[in-house]
Design brief:
This protein is α/β, with parallel strands linked by helices and 371 residues long. It is built from 13 helices and 14 strands. The strands form 3 sheets. It has a 6-stranded parallel beta sheet. Strands 11-10-12-13-7-14 form a 6-stranded parallel beta sheet, with helices on both faces.
């Protein structure tokens, strides 16, 4: 017992030291990028004490959490909390603006913040390469302090993790996928959309190389975007990966499941959405062994006993992957390893999306099960 108390005290001292470093670096604004259990909220409030601040949140579900933290840390200042959808309404009446989950800002949100003339502060647990570039270019905001996932694991602040990627073959025999008036297999459907995309890409390349080409470049680029979207939508509808995800869920004891649609959530486990609000309470109380979500709980949700996750479908977004995986890393680090299972279609664009989404994790801990 004494040894465990000493370990806890050591971790607290490490975190206190890192938080002090972060406050010092954060004084003049910029972005705080830090892992779970670091205490981003505490650092933000300590940095901005004595000021009149506007806190921008990505969704209203986080408002109660912020109010609780402000009360917990006895924030010495005044504040207002605003959903990012209302950014256009902000004025220069505040000493500073603090943007929670800054990686969720859309181009329109960023444009709305450009008119603000005072210091901007942002915090998040995930920030992909494209978001970093956009925030630096458009708002002059750069990372001023980073406490990475790997550093947090090494210093015993969060649990270690392993990500298991399960490649799944497209179905070649079961014809159920509709394309226009005909029905085909997953494999032939994927080949159809990929062929269409290659044809458009060839026309675009030809137009660049031949100035006398009559193709309408703008229309071709729009066609490429439309076809790319169609292919991604079809990939998310195929059933083979869904069945694999269900197989994994059924083999685990307690887990959170991330998917793309409410009907898929209901199929994979105990779906948590607008028609089943009681599911979360039942899951947290131990009455349910799993919870399946689409948009809910991928950010700001903390369950210190949650150890396992199944991700049915990933986009190429690095932030999205990090946020979902971080839900399992609030465990007590002593003796616990988070276990995350990701499904992807083998040798397809889906593989590329998954690879990019997991790029910012330690690749020695990303295990592709067909390699």
């Amino acid at each position: 017992m004494l040894i465990k108390k000493n370990i806890i005290a050591k971790k607290k001292n490490i975190r206190d030291t890192r938080q002090s470093e972060a406050v010092k670096a954060f004084k003049k604004g910029g972005i705080l990028l830090a892992s779970p259990r670091f205490g981003k909220t505490k650092v933000c409030l300590e940095t901005l004490k004595g000021k009149n601040i506007l806190i921008i949140i990505p969704n209203n579900d986080l408002k109660i959490g912020w109010k609780n933290e402000i009360e917990k840390w006895k924030f010495k200042g005044t504040y207002k909390i605003l959903n990012k959808s209302s950014i256009k309404k902000i004025t220069n009446d505040y000493d500073a603006i603090l943007i929670d989950e800054i990686d969720t800002l859309s181009p329109a949100n960023i444009k709305g913040l450009k008119k603000y003339k005072k210091i901007l502060y942002g915090c998040t647990g995930s920030l992909g390469e494209k978001s970093q570039e956009a925030l630096s270019k458009e708002l002059g905001m750069n990372i001023v302090y980073e406490y990475s996932i790997e550093q947090a694991v090494t210093e015993g602040v969060i649990a270690d993790y392993r990500i298991y990627v399960h490649p799944v073959d497209l179905d070649k025999t079961d014809s159920y996928v509709e394309i226009g008036k005909w029905i085909t297999t997953e494999e032939k459907s994927y080949e159809y959309w990929t062929k269409k995309l290659k044809e458009v890409a060839a026309k675009i390349a030809n137009s660049y190389s031949n100035p006398y080409n009559s193709f309408n470049m703008r229309q071709l680029i729009q066609d490429r975007m439309r076809l790319g979207l169609m292919r991604s939508q079809y990939i998310s509808r195929y059933l083979s990966k869904l069945k694999k995800a269900k197989e994994i869920v059924d083999s685990l004891d307690r887990c959170i499941i991330f998917t793309s649609r409410t009907d898929r959530a209901d199929y994979l486990g105990n779906g948590y959405h607008s028609k089943s609000k009681d599911v979360l309470d039942k899951f947290l109380s131990g009455k349910l062994s799993n919870i399946a979500v689409c948009k809910y709980l991928s950010r700001g949700f903390t369950d210190p006993t949650l150890k396992k996750a199944v991700i049915h479908h990933l986009t190429s977004s690095q932030e999205d992957a990090i946020q979902k995986i971080l839900r399992t890393m609030n465990l007590d680090p002593e003796g616990n390893v988070a276990e995350i299972h990701v499904c992807t279609y083998r040798n397809t664009k889906d593989t590329d999306w998954t690879t990019n989404a997991l790029k910012l994790f330690n690749q020695d801990k990303v295990i592709w099960l067909d390699k």
